[in-house]
């Protein structure tokens, strides 16, 4: 049997030393197929409200907020919100509520941009009385201003849904917080 020379031993050691980090980066089952997503981890459970959840649709029923300022379920806020597990819009009031009556609905026209789950808009500044994104401007209904005190008016993502009950209003859903408020389109 032949002995390996020092050069052969050093070459083999160098090969294994360089191959080890490459092997460590490879997933256990090999490389995933193109476009495949990793399986969900067994990490922390999804937040019951907000946390990036996007409702598939706007409100389809009226679920009032509980009386006495109590949340409707553990981990839920006392503000109007969407339950991330069921897409149920909690706190949406029945049609023609006095807080959302407009003498001149659509006074500034209809919002010309996309609405619904397919379009996420990034807020670019302002506050409840006037905020904007994409060159469009809105204001929060006076009755809902207290519900958006945790919004980041410069970076939060929102989705607009048409309000099925109150003519002239949209519902602005905050993706991070899961809270929604009535908003009025002011124009561009």
Structural account:
The chain is elongated. It is an alpha+beta fold and 188 residues long. 11% of the residues lie in helices and 20% in strands. The chain is built from one helix and nine strands. The chain has a seven-stranded antiparallel β-sheet, with no helix packed on it. The protein starts with 5 loop residues before the first helix and ends with a strand. It has a domain at 96-187.
Rg from C-alpha positions?
Answer: 26 Å
Strand order of the largest sheet: 3-7-8-9-6-5-4
- What is the beta-strand fraction? 15-25%
Helix content: 10-25%
How is the quaternary structure best described?
Answer: single chain
Number of helices: 1
Describe this protein with a few key phrases.
188 residues; 11% helix; single chain; 7-stranded antiparallel beta sheet; alpha+beta; two-stranded antiparallel sheet; 9 strands; 1 helix
In short:
It is built from one helix and nine strands; from the N terminus they run H-E-E-E-E-E-E-E-E-E.
Secondary-structure blueprint:
Layout (H helix, E strand, L loop, with lengths): L5 H20 L55 E3 L4 E3 L30 E2 L3 E2 L2 E4 L2 E5 L16 E6 L7 E5 L5 E8 L1
Antiparallel strand pairs: 1-2, 3-7, 4-5, 5-6, 6-9, 7-8, 8-9
């Amino acid at each position: 049997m032949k002995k390996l020379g020092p050069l052969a031993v050093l070459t083999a050691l160098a090969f294994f030393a360089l191959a080890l980090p490459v092997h460590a980066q490879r997933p256990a089952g090999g490389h995933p197929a193109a476009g495949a997503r990793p399986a969900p981890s067994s990490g922390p459970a999804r937040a019951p409200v907000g946390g990036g959840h996007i409702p598939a649709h706007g409100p389809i029923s009226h679920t009032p907020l509980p009386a006495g300022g109590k949340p409707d379920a553990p981990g839920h806020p006392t503000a109007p919100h969407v339950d991330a597990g069921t897409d149920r819009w909690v706190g949406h009031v029945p049609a023609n509520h006095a807080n959302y009556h407009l003498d001149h609905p659509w006074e500034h026209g209809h919002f010309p941009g996309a609405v619904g789950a397919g379009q996420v808009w990034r807020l670019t500044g302002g506050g409840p009385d006037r905020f904007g994104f994409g060159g469009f401007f809105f204001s929060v209904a006076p009755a809902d201003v207290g519900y958006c005190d945790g919004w980041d008016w410069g970076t939060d993502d929102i989705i607009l849904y048409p309000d099925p009950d109150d003519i002239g209003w949209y519902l602005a859903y905050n993706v991070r917080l899961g809270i929604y408020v009535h908003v009025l389109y002011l124009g561009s």
